[in-house]
């Protein structure tokens, strides 16, 4: 983000409370607390958190308590209070659901942690917005944490997991990539001026995509392009962007494409095997393994079929699920084909309890129809608040107006991955999306000052 002294002055100045500076500092600690988070090695996955991750959690919890102590009275300010109350109620239901159905507390807490961090994120962003913190100052630490995590995941895999460019996959994939794709889309088409941080974000995102050789990471890029184009059309209609500005706004897009093509060319020259792996993943992923379909599709279908079979034993469970952390299995009918790809000594046991490989199937399995509706309400509510915030500020747009669309675009980028993966299996996803859900409140506070200023009988903007 631009340093405060070089940002254009906002014509509508929202007064900052005396504690806003302390809230902003605590917000940086909160968002950066899991910037160095990573996927535990397979041999440690079931043994609990390490000391480093407990430190991350301590920083996260301590900063959240500090923000709550400084600004808890503003939690009831509308409209942000509704999404906070909705998500908090859902988490109480999920915790009680797991407890009543006998799910081991250690499992349920571990699965629910990203959702709890999401609640903390939306509360912290809500309080910061009510304290008068500008949206750009709320988003700045998110961008820093996201870029750090993408690079750290790759470095951690190469340094501590014996991963190479020939074997790198989801072990080094960062959950922050889909949010960076959303930020880049907004910065390219909706931001009024170019800034060097865009080059950094583009470089970080596509480095992560190239190294991990994961097709699903391309989905947020396409989702960001579609969602930001939609937001651009709305901005033109609201007249916060003029038609004669389009050529200038598309210029950074051309530069980003050239940067991407250059990166592809460099990779082709420096690491030819990397492009061969991409060719295999995109065009030759099933036939050379003698499987009837792509192996990623087969694993997700095996998981979903197993969950549906468990739920069908008692159809009432389709209403409330089995609770977060409940055991499930991959359906045995898929095991013979999966063994064509997976190691011969791999065990397809009946005690899988992590948050699955699809947001929607696991939401149904753990929370039933209630869980599905809660996820839809979170994503839909975030998008609705984002569009409302952008519209409420359109009469007097400020330099941060482009960030009003960011939660909408970020939600679509997360949705784009939700069928083939479960972003809410990651702690950093909870923090980042929680901030996005709470960010519109800062714009609604600003909009209230616009209306108050416009209602004055005299003044330059009356």
Number of helices: 17
Tally of extended strands? Answer: 0
- Name the shape in a single word: globular
| Helix content bin | 55-70%
The oligomeric status of these chains comes to single chain
Task: Describe the 3D structure.
The protein has helices at 20-32, 51-71, 80-100, 105-130, 135-160, 177-189, 196-212, 218-238, 246-270, 272-283, 295-312, 317-320, 335-338, 359-392, 406-418, 427-438, 440-454. It is mainly alpha-helical and 462 residues long. Helix 1 (20-32) runs parallel beside helix 5, helix 3 runs antiparallel to helix 14 and helix 6 runs antiparallel to helix 7 (196-212). Residues 1-5 and 457-462 have low confidence and may be disordered.
What key phrases describe this protein's structure?
mainly alpha; disordered N terminus; 17 helices; single chain; 462 residues
Topology:
Blueprint: H1 20-32, H2 51-71, H3 80-100, H4 105-130, H5 135-160, H6 177-189, H7 196-212, H8 218-238, H9 246-270, H10 272-283, H11 295-312, H12 317-320, H13 335-338, H14 359-392, H15 406-418, H16 427-438, H17 440-454
Structure in a nutshell:
This protein is an all-alpha fold. It has 17 helices and no strands.
